[in-house]
Design goal:
The protein has one domain. With 125 residues, the chain is α+β, with helices and mostly antiparallel strands. Helix 5 runs antiparallel to helix 6. 47% of the residues lie in helices and 12% in strands.
Amino acid sequence: MVGDKALVMVDNREIQSMIYTFRGRQVMIDSDLTRLYQVNTGRLNKQVKRNIDRFPVQFMFQLTAEEYQFLISQNAISNKGRGGRRKLPYVFTEQGIAMLSAVLNSAVAVDMSIKIMNSFETAVL
């Protein structure tokens, strides 16, 4: 347990299954990251907006409607749930994920980022 939150138990293979390739870059979807970092989407988005200069387009970008539909069609993510998404998801590269752990400023984010970085190293393009 880190602070008042238990680390989400995920292995390298599970994290690797959350890594996608878009625009020639390996990325992770914001909703997967919020689950791993144990924060809600609002907090993640707020911290990104407050620190937007740390997230240039090579670190984070928003998927197009076509890219998002591709994810749904590949069963990578569900479009079901409590009303679905209102906005297209943002995705973060390995460098963007490193920045996220810094701006979220929590022990859970730091520990999980290390696990994610190790998974990026062994993920197949």
